[in-house]
Amino acid sequence: MNKPFLFVGLDYEDPGELVYSAFQLNEIDRDNFGFKINLDSVIKRALLGQGISHYSRDMNNVFNLGRPIFVDLKMWNGKRTMVSVIKDLAEANVVYTNVYALADKPFLEACVKATEGTNTKILGLTILTHYTDDYCQRMFGCSLKEATRRFADVVVSAGCHGIILPGTTLDVVQDLQIEKLVPAVRPDWYGKTGDNYQEQEVSVREAIAGGANLFVCSSPIRKSKDKKEALIRTLDEMI
Predict the structure, then answer these.
(1) What are the pLDDT digits (tens) for 178-233?
(2) Nearest to residue 35, comparing CAs of 163, 226, 230, 216?
(3) Domains of the chain and CATH, by start
(4) Of 60, 117, 223, 230, which sits most exposed with the smallest number of CB within 10 A?
(5) Of 74, 77, 178, 177, nearest in space to 129 by CA
(6) How far apart are the two ends of the chain, measured CA to CA in Å?
(7) Do the Cβ atoms of 15 and 49 come closer than 8 Å?
């Protein structure tokens, strides 16, 4: 995916809402968007809500739409656990999933190896868009941009297919020839609001200008009364 591509965050706790929104948005005849499914959707409802079998049926309905799927697990676990999960995602033909760069190079390499011969790609997660310079100074002893670059180098050295980073730090990775996904993009029509405690919001156009080619947008579309119109307006800003 070299041209700008948007993943719509289906960040719903209710799998019924998730499936309904996916089918509704899928009616838009554009080929430059897919869906992001969150960890809480996978775990909370599958294990504590309606049960595994019910949830699997719901998810199959979304996967069968044929849109690229990004399963946002933000994994940082034991090597065996992560590899096992990734193999299952690859079998389901998930296009992207993500692993924290903090898991370190050997673990990331094992995750990448698990995708060999499949259509699934591993995105190395640097710093969440929820964090700030102050957080990075306290936790890593460096600035937000310095931490992002440090973790990006780990991701690249491990052979990951792409990186996830705050849009406000794109300038420090311009030399890296790798797919770049920016979460928390906000279309101009919506503005920057700090939804969901997002600290590092950027506009769609800012992310594109900074060199990103993959984006996640959730709140502006999910919270709109007319979700289809919101998605169309967002996609129009990617042209």
Answers:
(1) 999 999 999 999 988 888 889 999 999 999 999 999 999 999 999 999 999 999 99
(2) 216
(3) 5-236 (3.20.20.70)
(4) 117
(5) 74
(6) 15
(7) yes
